[in-house]
Amino acid sequence: MHLPTAHELSEQLNRGETTSVKLTQQYLEKIERTEPRLHSFITVLGHEALAAAEASDRRRAYELPKSPFDGVPVAVKDNMITKGTKTTCASRILDNFVPPYNGTVVQKLQDAGMIVIGKANLDEFAMGSSTENSAFGRSNNPWNTDLVPGGSSGGSATCVAGGQVPWSLGSDTGGSIRQPAALCGIVGMKPTYGRVSRYGLVAFASSLDQIGPMTLDVEDTAHLLKMISGYDTKDSTSANLPVPDYAEEMRKGSLRGKKVARPKEFFTGEGMDAGVARVVDAAVEKLASLGAEIVDVSMPHLKYSISCYYLVATAECSSNLARYDGAQYGYRTEGAKNIVEMFSKSRAEGFGAEVKRRIMMGTHALSAGYYDAYYSKALKIRTLLKQDYDAALKQADLIVAPTSPIPAFPAGAKADPMSMYLCDIFTLSLNLAGYCGISLPAGFTANEGLPVGVQLFAGAFEEVKLLQASYEFEKALGVVGSRLPAVVG
Amino acid sequence: MAITIADVEHVALLSRLELSVGEKERYAQELSDIFGHVEELNKVDVTGVPPTAHPLPLKNVFREDVIQPSLPNAEALANAPAKEGPLFKVPQIV
Questions:
Q1: Contact, A439 vs A187, CB < 8 A?
Q2: Residues A396, A296: Cα–Cα separation, whole Å
Q3: Which of A92, A192, A206, A486 has its CA 20 to 30 A from that of A3?
Q4: CATH 3.90.1300.10 placement within chain A
């Protein structure tokens, strides 16, 4: 038995073997059964989802489906704006916020007839690597519920890995799609910056944030990416480029003769769990056995990516989160005597500890006397990092990297913020460069049987090349569908 | 570089965050650790390196200045913590 993929469900719907109402009911039942153990969701949309499913079935019976995926359920991370449905960002400061409009990706899902079944849990404002920073409690890893699922898109990972929904959307600012995908044994992709509109994605770090698919296999990632990609007049940073039929293009490539760069800085073994390293090394060998040429390269500035990232991301966050002031929406403190007191108390009471920490880091890095030493310096290091990527991608078609240095870890194990930031060592630099990357299930640790991910990166708007390699690599790895987690709907 | 309680108070004021005494002490320690780590960037020679503020080589992005419908007043006010008539209501400003 394996969990059904969205493309399989789409085929069943297209052949008339099931209905959207049946599917939606089944998934709602799965959620009801497993949610006490997984806690994937902040909001589950029961009757709204069923009403949308009924409308989808009527379209299939009497009109035309809006897309091949009309009627397939999907979950979105709760930092994507949904009209009429609470959007909290897992923060107290937005716990009663009901948006008056849809984000572009949510609108695109609905335009394709898909059924948004829930708003998935996350670290508050997508800041974290475990979902422990959610104001509404952490999500649990379906492979072992004592462990975290990773983050920040942890709920988007657990709902897919735990079979509560066939696929979901996450957002990735420094690895927030890829790391939880790896820790939960699913596929997670960060598209090139600009591939997917950010309109209606609650901003954390605007030059790094990107929405992407979290799915059971590469084929689903290709389908979902096509659905959400494209130019949007409401996001001036979205790319005005055609959207290929990724699922079709994906089948046309071969790894034979392709060059895959292996940056030595990603394979030093330092801080790396031995069980994870064994799985990743075996995956790299598999790439070679498929006919890819592994090219050893050096990307000398990768070691600075954590410092660079935490200056750039927090600077942007301190600016973006200035909008939460209790004036127009969201939480407001009681009884403030003047406006400054209202701002300062609303923010103090509404934000959690990590969000406050990052706002202060960013404010410090941007403040008079420190701007040149920190923010301006980080932007120059960002240039050097990007040049490292460009040099590697000049020598090779793709880059291979581990996703996380460690498998899923117990809650509370990374209480010191710096130790949590170090978990993102293999993912952050891709966002700084802006290029696309994917984490694929590579295997399981020998001792604990926990999932391990491996990443492939490609250049700007080279999603087709990335998916072609991933599709073949995934089949050779043979991990997808091979084992079911302990908790499954 | 050590970040003092006074530094934390200054940054908290700029950030409009009211902090407890315990929070100030904790953040002084944590921010010192983090900015201590960040000091490693001083090892890199960035002479002549241009900054990258944004991953795409975008210049100005223009569009036609066409009037679009905006959010109706009632919807814009629907999430307001306090309102009066067609306006957001806040405590005294000046």
A1: yes
A2: 10
A3: A192
A4: 6-253
Contact A380/B46, CB-based, under 8 Å? yes
- Whether residue A348 and residue B91 make contact (CB cut-off 8 A), yes or no, is no
Asked if A384 and B44 come within 8 Å (Cβ–Cβ), the reply is yes
Residue A192's closest CA among A472, A471, A480, A462?
Answer: A462
Residue B11 maps to a domain: yes
**Domain holding B9: CATH number?**
1.10.20
Domain that holds residue B32: 5-43
Residue from A20, A67, A77, A305 carrying the catalytic annotation? A77
Taking the alpha carbons at both ends of chain B, their separation in whole angstroms is 38
Measured distance CA(A262)–CA(A274) in Å, rounded? 18
- The owner of tokens 């475990």 is A130
Q: Which residue, among B38, B15, A308, has the nearest Cα to B30 in the 3D structure?
A: B38
Q: What pLDDT score does A1 carry?
A: 62
Nearest-CA distance A472 → chain B (Å): 29
| ipTM of model | 0.96
Strand arrangement, sheet containing A210-215: A41-44, A115-120, A73-77, A168-172, A210-215, A187-190, A436-444, A451-458, A398-402, A259-263, A293-297
d(CA A202, CA A323): 11
Report the alpha-carbon angle A49-A55-A57, nearest 5.
Answer: 100
CA–CA separation, A56 and A20 (whole Å)? 7
Q: Within a domain: residue B26?
A: yes
Please tell me the class of the A6-253 domain.
alpha beta
C-alpha distances out from residue B24 to A68, A262, A295, B11, B36, Å: 55, 43, 49, 11, 18
Distance from CA of B36 to the nearest CA of A (A): 10
Whether A380 and B50 lie within 8 Å, measured CB to CB: yes
Q: What part of A 58-87 touches B (C-beta under 8 Å)?
A: none
Residues 300-319 in A contacting B (C-alpha not used; CB under 8 Å): 301, 304, 306-308, 310-311, 318
Taking only the tens place, the pLDDT of each residue in B19-58 is 999 999 999 999 999 999 999 999 999 999 999 988 887 7
The answer to whether B38 and A381 have CB atoms below 8 angstroms apart is: no
DSSP single-letter state for residue B3? P
Mean pLDDT of the residues in chain A = 97
